[in-house]
Design a protein that fits this description.
By secondary structure, this protein is of the alpha/beta class. It is built from six helices and 13 strands. The structure holds 5-O-phosphono-beta-D-ribofuranosylamine.
Length: 222
């Protein structure tokens, strides 16, 4: 008798509203992603996404960044040690960053090779870092978008998996543009997680493949 493969167990890390977390949890529930949400972890006790997770009946944990401040700075090693404890305590084997507003250290990232994804609201390598919607509007770019990528020690710099493009319209402000980008996020993040959880997407020591072929450039969703 062969063992049935066990479904992936996701730790979803959030700091804010958690709309991506909800989209991912729903995709797990309805069978589009062969995984289950093991825990939703926030570094912000007031994150709106925590209540949304509770409403979905998901396990939640708070690792309050404010409780790890020493002399005005985040004590990153203790903060990350508690994050890791929570991830392990819930049996998670995949780490999904979904609006988690903390830079994670190289040693933390190295503990999850090929098992940690992030979503970034720009067409990477354009606009790493914060305030991407404002940057796009200030630059007068005709299009904007979103990227799902593997997390490496380089901020917003790991191999890109999938991108979606959206137009920038003349009447756009940050709120309108961000809403259009979010709608695309909720489509492509579950897709990328499905690929990784099902084994279609492989890491291969930093040289990702999708369905056996090198992922030299991100899949272009739209
Ligand atoms: C998204 O725009 C995501 O790309 C970025 O943070 C935001 C999180 O939004 N990393 P939400 O909390 O999932 O609604």
């Amino acid at each position: 008798m062969t063992d049935k493969p066990t479904a992936a167990r996701l730790a979803i890390l959030i700091s804010g509203a958690g709309s991506n977390m909800v989209a991912i949890a729903q995709a797990c529930r309805d069978g589009r992603i062969p995984a289950q949400v093991a825990v939703v972890i926030s570094d912000q006790p007031a994150a709106g996404g925590l209540q949304r997770a509770r409403d979905l009946g998901l396990p939640v944990a708070v690792v309050d960044a404010a409780g790890y401040r020493r002399e005005g700075r985040l004590d990153r090693s203790h903060f990350e040690a508690e994050l890791e404890t929570q991830i392990r305590a819930h049996g998670a084997d995949m780490v999904i960053l979904a609006g988690f507003m903390r830079i994670l250290s190289a040693p933390f990232v190295a503990r999850h090779p090929g098992r940690m994804l992030n979503i970034h609201p720009s067409l990477l390598p354009l606009y790493p870092g914060l305030d991407t919607h404002s940057c796009v509007l200030a630059a007068g770019d005709p299009e904007h978008g979103v990227t799902v990528h593997f997390v490496t020690a380089e901020l917003d710099g790991g191999p890109a998996i999938i991108q979606a493009r959206v137009p920038v319209l003349p009447a756009d402000d940050v709120a309108k543009l961000s809403a259009r980008v979010h709608a695309a996020e909720h489509i492509i993040y579950p897709m990328a997680i499905q690929w990784l959880a099902s084994g279609r997407l492989q890491w291969n020591d930093g040289r990702p493949t999708l369905d056996g072929s090198a992922l030299a450039a991100p899949v272009r969703h739209v």
